[in-house]
Amino acid sequence: MQAAPTTRTGRRPGRPAARRTHTALAAGLLTAVLALSGCGAADDSGASTDKRAAAPAQRNEAGATAGGAKEDAGGSAAARKPNPSAAAHVIRTASLSVEVKSAPEAAAAARVTAEAAGGLIADEKTEQVDAARASSHVVLRVPQGEYDNVLRELSGTGKLLSRTSTAKDVTDQVVDVESRIASQRTSVARVRKLMDRADELSDVVALEGELSSRQAALESMLAEQASLKDRTALATITLNLSEPKAHGKADAADDKDGPGFLDALSGGWHVFVTVVKWLAMALGAAAPFLAVAAVALVLWRLLRRRGGKAGPDGG
């Protein structure tokens, strides 16, 4: 059996084909490795994306566990933003000064008007200014829907002297309080859960103090919410009622026209009564002396008569 012919370099003729085969195989393996690397990179990218998306949630959860008090006190900025579609909350107040014929009667009519509108009288005070005049101070609370009607009706009860009204939008404040209340309730519930799990006495004491503080803050927020609800649900109207001065116009007319016959007659009668009064006083003061003088005069006349009768008989 003859050996295969060789070349000048001493290599067999089939070696180049084998080398090409190995090269193709290596290229295929390299392509497969690159493809697998690309898939792995894509998976790693997706995993990192998921991790980045989950990171804020983990941070929020950690912040809720470690710094719950700070989060509950401040609240979420996004949660406190007012909803454009939410109803507006407005505090309306008005003040009226009206001159009426009878202040007590006008105050009673205002009370009826407020109650008919579904409102109430928050404060009422009536006092006597002088012997002929009285004044009333009434504070009415009426529903927002009846505010304009009641204000118009009260303005027409007499002569309007002054009128002021204000409106304050507190929608942002109402939404903010509601958000803080929700956060504070969650905070209180979280502390209660921690108290149920606490085993050490020191932990229980610390959690009780924290719970008391958070409940006090929650009650303060609830009181603020109730106050806002009351002031936005019912408008406040302050009504001041006064009566005109008696005979003011007649006195002014008399001052312009000057004194008349009746004034002169009244003055003369006053002078006559005054003279009679002084004469009576003078007579009363001199009465004792006049009585003594009268008695002395009578005695003197009696003595004189007796002396006259005794004189002729003796002669």
What does this structure look like?
It is a single chain. The longest helix has 54 residues. Helix content is 67%, strand content 16%. A five-stranded mixed beta sheet has the order 2-3-5-1-4. The protein has 315 residues and is an alpha+beta fold. The chain contains nine helices and five strands. The N terminus is likely disordered.
Map the helices and strands.
Layout: H1 15-66, H2 68-74, H3 77-80, E1 90-99, H4 103-116, E2 120-128, E3 134-143, H5 147-155, E4 159-169, H6 171-197, H7 201-233, E5 234-242, H8 248-257, H9 261-314
Parallel strand pairs: 1-5
Antiparallel strand pairs: 1-4, 2-3, 3-5
Helix pairs in contact: 2-6, 6-7
Helix content: 55-70%
| Percent of residues in β-strands | 15-25%
**Spatial sequence of strands, sheet with the most strands:** 2-3-5-1-4
Q: What is the typical, i.e. mean, pLDDT?
A: 74
Main sheet record? 5 strands, mixed
Treating each run of at least 4 consecutive H or I residues as one helix, how many helices? 9
Structural class: alpha+beta
Low-pLDDT residue intervals, each spanning 5 or more residues: 1-18, 33-86
> What best-fitting shape do the alpha-carbon axes yield?
elongated
Taking all Cα atoms into account, the compactness measure Rg is 55 Å
Strands, count: 5
* SSE order, one letter for each helix or strand: HHHEHEEHEHHEHH
N- to C-terminal separation?
Answer: 240 Å
